[in-house]
Design a protein that fits this description.
mainly beta, five-stranded antiparallel beta sheet, four-stranded antiparallel beta sheet, elongated
């Protein structure tokens, strides 16, 4: 075999291995691989990404929810029969997980829920709530970091499992945008920039604070909840307990640091890192 032939074989082998490795990028212990419609994603327009406790990835697109186990995709297509009217939610696409089996999806004035065990939508959420003794219409739904479901019904927040009730004061003209909770306290975030803290055990108010003076709250509401999304920037809350309760708490733990009502649209292929599925 001539010298030129050996050199050509080496070049071909080198190119072969280069092409084999192009979809993957290594970074330390992580393996990154590009996922798009050609790999099974139903749509390249991603609206939300979430990883489930069992390792599966959730990619929501304009018309489908994609569940990815690291090898295969399964698709859940939304139809009108799965939609529950959510009159007080004026925000954009949002996903919550409660427990290890329910995936709640909120969109403007819409609520849907997926049973992750069955990998299918719950078809009648009105019946779901009534079976749990919720007869009045649910106006909004939130899930805190512990997976507890909170329902906004009229001027009251109701925790779905233990039926804890928090009556919201009438003095707040703003809409409730988000909430979070720890073992003792519930934190409510309004579109005026106001934050209220309640003691869960006795439902009493611990404190009310505002990020802005009353003279600026209307402008905050306009920027936070208006229809101008050109900048792609919304409100970000980052509340430190150490500075909230009149200095009584010494911890410096952030209770909520999240963009609110922020539409996420990814039009390019996404890269996902997997450390393995159990």
């Amino acid at each position: 075999m001539t010298t030129n032939s050996l050199r050509n074989i080496r070049i071909l082998l080198c190119l072969f291995f280069c092409f084999r490795m192009t979809p993957f990028i290594y970074a330390g212990e992580f393996l990154f691989t590009t996922i798009n419609a050609s790999q099974g994603l139903s749509d390249n327009q991603i609206r939300y990404i979430l990883q489930l406790p069992d390792g599966r990835m959730v990619f929501t697109t304009s018309g489908n929810v994609n569940l990815y186990d690291g090898v295969h995709f399964s698709y859940l297509h939304r139809t009108t029969e799965y939609v529950y009217p959510l009159n007080q939610y004026n925000g954009h696409y949002r996903i919550y997980q409660s427990g290890d089996s329910l995936l709640w999806i909120k969109d403007t004035h819409k609520l849907m829920c997926i049973d992750l065990y069955r990998e299918e939508y719950i078809p009648d959420l009105d019946a779901y709530f009534k079976n749990r003794e919720i007869q009045a219409p649910v106006e909004d739904l939130f899930v805190d970091d512990s997976g507890h479901i909170w329902l906004l019904i009229a001027n009251e927040l109701l925790e779905l499992n233990n039926k804890t009730r928090i009556t919201l004061p009438g003095k707040y003209s703003g809409k409730l945008q988000d909430l979070n909770a720890d073992s003792t306290s519930l934190y409510l975030f309004y579109d005026t920039g106001e934050v209220s803290c309640y003691h869960i055990a006795d439902q009493k108010t611990v404190y009310n604070i505002a990020a802005y003076p009353a003279s600026e709250q209307a402008e905050y509401q306009k920027q936070c909840c208006g229809n101008n999304y050109a900048t792609g920037v919304k409100a970000v809350y980052s509340i430190s307990i150490a500075t909230s309760a009149h200095g009584k708490n010494s911890s410096n733990r952030t209770i909520l640091s999240t963009p609110l009502s922020l539409p996420l649209m990814v039009r390019k292929p996404i890269s996902v890192a997997f450390t393995g599925f159990g």
